[in-house]
Amino acid sequence: MMTHDRYPRVRSRVRWFKPIGGVGLHFQRVVSVTTLAVLLSSLAWAERTPLRPGWNLFSVEQDIEAGQQVSKDAERQLPMLGNSRVDNYLSDLGRRLAAKAPGEKYLYRFKAVNDRAINAFALPGGPVYINRGVIEAADNEAQLAGVMAHEIAHVALRHGTNQASKAYAAQVPLSILGGIVGGNSVGAMLAQLGAGFAVNSILLKYSRTAESQADIMATQILYDSGYDPRAMAQFFEKIQTQDRGGHSVEFFSNHPNPENRIQRVTEEVSRLGGSQRAYNAGTGEFADVKRNVQSLAGSEPRRTESSDAGARPEWPSDRWVRFENSLLRMNYPDNWQAYEQGDAVTIAPRGGLVADNSGNQALAYGVIVNVYEPHRDPYGQQLQGPGYRQDSWMLLEQATDQLVEEFRRSNRSMRVVRSHENMEVQGERALSTYLSNDSPVGGRETNWLITMEHPEGLLFFVFSAPDRDLRNYEGVFRQMLYSVQIKN
Question: Is the CATH number 2.40.50.180 carried by domain 320-486?
Answer without folding.
Answer: no
